[in-house]
Amino acid sequence: MAMATTSLSLLLLFLSLLTPLLAHPTPLQPSPYLSPPTVVFPDYHKMTTHFKIYTYDPPKSFHFTTPPETKFHNSLLNSQFLTRNPNEAHLFFVPFPHDFSTRQLSRFIRDLRQNFPYWNRTLGADHFFVSRAGIAYAPDRNVLELKKNAVQISFFPTTSGNFIPHKDITLPPLHSNPSPLALPHAPANKTASFLGFMKLDVKSQSQSQSQSDKSLVQEMEGDPEFAFASEPLDLGESRFCLFLYGGDLTWVGEAMRVGCVLVVITDRPIQDLPLIDVVRWSEIAVFVGPRGGVGELKRVLSGIGDERYERMRGLGVVAAQHFVWNATPQPYDAFYMVMYQLWLRRHAIRYARREWV
């Protein structure tokens, strides 16, 4: 009953946030979700009451060492989703440390194959695992099945080649000092002092960035319409918050919460966005390539009219709650939305259920 009340409350909040956007109705009402809210919320509620996960014992005692992995793993172990009965499980969790060699990982999967019946039923397709950088293809049969069939949960952005779209999931970035959730109907950002803000990051200047990215950043640093700082302290001073794909993306959720519209700078399509099965990213973010320089960037951003800007800003505030990692998971936060993505994958492979002895 409490969860149902929460679902209704969130739906009402969603509608209240969109009221000013719907003053002039359009054929398709704006929503940050790929499916209508009337579909997403009831299905989410069903997930919270029905979804079951069975976790294997790890091959050795270990702890995840990074905050996003630790948050997800601890939340999972203390959640209502775990079951001790593998026959009622929808999915199976395969825990192993990030420093496992290919040979060690192969032996672990081999042992699961030999000691339990569940892997062989689907060749691992109803299993999932956490790997910060993802795992690469390998000629070993066990590792290959894990790579190709099991759902991988990794960091965003992922290592090139280690992510399979429509199967794998990325964790929403974790920001260490999030601000309170932006209030509904936050005033329009028309008096912003800057067109865009970008966080200065040493990693963003590393060799991993393309020359086009570096050139664009250098041009922006010399343009008074863009602000730079080592920490995103007052994002309300800028209409847009700019991110280099591959750079520091930990404050994506923070930007959305305060109503700063996201701009992702990338020279290729992005297929590993967090919550990509749930959130309609084209409604909350602008994607632009770096090759046109600061002139093209300003042309794209200046071409976004007030109506579209306010719609993106409002929808970003709605979606921001799904990027918050709480010490104790709360409905619709990052942990629950990662679980919802797993829930959506429970029917990827169907098989005849029967009792296994």
From TrEMBL:
**Domain (Exostosin GT47): residue spans on this chain:** 48-288
Q: Which family does it belong to?
A: Belongs to the glycosyltransferase 47 family.
Could you state a single Gene Ontology molecular function term?
glycosyltransferase activity
Q: How does it sit in the membrane?
A: Single-pass type II membrane protein
Q: One GO cellular component from the entry? A: Golgi membrane
User: Which terms are listed as keywords in the entry?
Assistant: Glycosyltransferase, Golgi apparatus, Signal, Signal-anchor, Transferase, Transmembrane
Keyword Signal tagged: yes
Q: What is this protein called?
A: Glycosyltransferase
Localization annotation: Golgi apparatus membrane
Signal peptide span per the entry?
1-23
**Organism (species):** Actinidia chinensis var. chinensis
Family annotation (InterPro entries): Exostosin, Exostosin_GT47
